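Q: Predict the assembly, please.
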Amino acid sequence: MLLTVVVFLPLLAAGVLVAAPGLAGRAAIGLWVAASAVDLLLVGWMWWRFEPGTGASGVVDGLAYEVDLQWIPTVDAGYHIGVDGLSLPLLALTGVLFLACAVYSLREPDRPRTYAALFLFLQSACLGTFASLDLILFFVFFDLTIVGMYFVIAGWGHGDARRSALKFFLYTFIGSLALLVGFIGLFLGSEERTFDMVALAADPPLADSPLAGGLVLLAIGLGLAVKTPLFPFHTWLPDAHTDAPAAGSAVLAGILLKLGTYGFVRIAMPILPDAWQRWAMVAVIVGVISVLWGAFVALAQTDVKRMIAYTSVNHMGYVLLGLGAAGLVASADEGARTVATVGAMYQMVSHGLLTGALFLLSGWFWSHGHTYAFDRWGGLARPAPVFAACLAVAAFGSLGLPGFSGFIAEFQVFTGALQATPVATVIAVVGILVTAGLFLLALQRLLTGDTTVPSAEPEDGGESVRPEEEPARAGRAVATTVRPPTATRIRDLRGHETASIVPLLALALVLGLLPRVLLDVLEPAAAAVVELVAR
Amino acid sequence: MSAALAALVLVPAVSGVGLLLSGRRADRVAGLLAVAVTAVALLLAATVAIARPRLSLPFLGVVEGGDLRLAVDGLSAVLVLLVAGIALLVTGFAVADLPDDAARGRFFGYLLLFVAAMLATVTAATVPALLLAWEVMGATSYALIGFRWEERGKLAAGTRAFVTTRAGDLGLYVAAGAALAATGSLVLADLDTAEGGWADLAAAGVLVAALGKSAQLPFSAWLSAAMQGPSPVSALLHSATMVAAGGYLLLRVQPLLATTGWAATAAAWAGALTALVLGAVAVAQSDLKQLLAASTAAQIGFVVLAAGVGATAGGTAQLVAHAAVKAGLFVAAGAWLTALGTKQLAGLRGAARRYPGVGAAATVAALALAGVPPLSLWATKDEVLAGVQGTALTVVGLAAAVISAVYAGRILAVVLARPTEEEALDEEEPGTRRVPVLTRTAAGVLAVFAAGLGVFALPAVADPLEDLLGAQGEPSPGLGDLLLSGGLAVAALALTVAVSRARPAFVRAVERSPLSSWAGLGHLLSPRPALAVARLLAAVDDRGIDRAVTAVASGTRRAAAVSARTDAGLVDGAVRGIARAVRRAGAAARRPQTGLLHQYYAQAAAGLGVLLVLLLVVRQ
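A: Predicted assembly structure:
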């Protein structure tokens, strides 16, 4: 019951917002913050009461807060939700990140009531996906997130927002159709004809038909690969991110991408262990290509937000490398495979926090200069020291510096995967060098040198000077070096922005220094996944 | 006692973070606090060096050795004392040397964090603990080298240092996986039991990491860029910490290197060649800090050589002696830079005479660097070379030793000369024309150690060191070896000083040789190839993959348009055609309905006629 409340409380708040058209903007955002905060408190309570167990526990047993109601009895699809070590961290991440987005959006000027309602709706959909233990329920929530995010990008985005939103919607929606085909395959292949994930994982379908199992895995894998996104299905990501509002980008990268990787751990691996073992090498290879591709393409970007978007491809590649290694049962012992799986799952949480913070920070560029182009910014450490410090911390966290959560994730992925697949792992390790280079280069370009900002800071609500007009005004010959003196007066992070970003970074630091907080919950579940895959 | 070990790392770390968070408010107290903290750290280091505690904090799980485990054995005991001692002296120097308006809170904050990371590195007993400390040290070195980020190129130098050392660090990540695969644990000491291919992979990983951190070939050039940092940073990073960490790690995993065979040989040759090549690079420098940087890589080369040939005691002694010598020289170089405003050798002519206190200390340290008996590096270098077997390696090692006398001679020839009062001063910054007493003290103490550690030549000192390190029975240099190397050093030093005096044109020619630009080693670290690959892949991403996706979308739209046309033309056309035909048939059927009876009779008669014919035909 508590879990149902957690999932639907944001939706309820969204309903209130929609039903009260007279509500003032600030009050609407206030309600949003309050609903998200209460939801996070409830998730915190669930965490507090959760017994992670010792040894392997999760996926098929050790489920807490379980609710199982009949829904579509003819196909045995039910309202089956529950929590284990796989989903609890991601539920908590969802709560944290949405609250951060709510605080970040405190002064959202553009239709704040609808904006808040949309985000609350999105939060319910995300929480529902992570809590689902039924394939149809999972699919419904999964698709609702796509719908919600489409409206966020199309309605509150900038640049070519409607095109990007449409691209995002069509691409991921088609991906979800492949997922649905796969789910139907699982249903038809199961002995007892059910969509229940727990039942399917306990008694894996299609165990004795490798061809059918492989095809079903292919369909599910395709659907999840688009969402994750993995090479070569990632090109919707940079467009969607560049044109989305900062909070939308944070949720898109922080939570929505995790729906894909979570699907691998929750559905593909335990329910199709045979096929996963058989095709694990494909996951490893796709993972390694994503790692390198994401890193190198990010290095070449000339736009801050596109760069961060491509590092997400890189970071999600590590997850696939770890999960693929977990399927190479013959070539590595159980300890190593468990370490790799723990690392992959840790990466989901870590990436959510750090990339969420990076995208919220990138919103500062848009609100102060309406451009993300590297060459329009420089020397920002002087006028905006708090922003600079936050950006530097987030960058170092994202490049996997020990002390931050990313290190715990990547170190375990590499260490665990090396035995199973040494060549691929050694190649993938190069990814952390390229990300180090690209983040440091970005810091150097943005924070040091002569202070450069695109234009005088726009007054609140006022129209900003278009970046293109300024060179004409300053004279073309000196446009790049000489700026009007007023242009260097630029405001640092504001209070509510700092209050939304700093906790994310602090949490990444805590999870990097005291990882037991999360590992105690994750490790039994990862051990369970590894055991189920090795069947 | 494990509390002392925890405090050894946590006290500097926590105070460092505290200083960083307080920002400029802490500037006034930062220096004093840092001196106090490093003094406490030295006391704690002495405590743990005697008590040898162990400590384990929960960190990663699932496998053995995932915890953060610190332990102090003989090697660690020497290193913690060394690191804490040098840190205290350099912090004192920094208090005096930093300009008053510098962001001292930030500087000392990162400095303390760096010291904490180095102390954790030399006491780490598990791979996660080592890697955590190792990389945090790299990141803080980035912040320290780029401390004056407002000035062009400073942060870029930090970036280069961090990215290069991280390229080496990749080796440690790989080694961690190989250790787990080989031994099922991440405990460092278990690495010695690794066998087969995994041992090879682990050894290769550790070797690459150590060479990167210690600026050995082919990674040396980051050290040149790192000289952009403030002088105290150079004095700390390039004496007892950072570059020393690589040498330390190789000494620590020496049994693993020996197991594989090839890794030990590779380490020995990498060290020896670095000592030779970077020694030559040092000779050709015209900038004192660049000279010292190159000589740092060269001197650490002897430590790496020692680890390769299994001379653990000699390597450790070399590490300690070099730390004192080089810290002293960097303090002197920093003092002159602050006082005279230049670090160019041309401008530093007679610097030792202008400021005799620091000058005397620097002279002693430079003599030690040259390997002049009975000073420290003379003894320790021979201790290392005594372990070397094989003619080729011995010759390279001896040649490198001679070259160290040459570059030390270049320093001495300049700073001890009589100033002409025509030196180009204040080239890089306005000089203060004074050397504070704290600086003189720091340099003096370091010089005492630089000279005094020559006692390593005495078996009465060398043997207890071997016992401490558990390295009994390692070969010691004979009296002949000691005399030969001492003689060579003195001769080379004298010759260098003489040539510098008599033939300044020759020296200038050397300074113009390719060696002066670090023999092009910087090109090895160039980011250009990576950037080219990045741009290529980005182009493929945009114009290949994304274009393909868009093409599918627009293809779908075109297909839809074609179907729409087909639908309108063919399917709907057929329907409309049928309708038209039916309408025409209807019109045709209407024609006979004329309403004229005679026509109907005629039609009926014709119809009956047809029926009759039909009947007749069918009947037959």
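The beta strands of chain B are 54-57, 68-71. The two ends of chain B are 129 Å apart (CA to CA).
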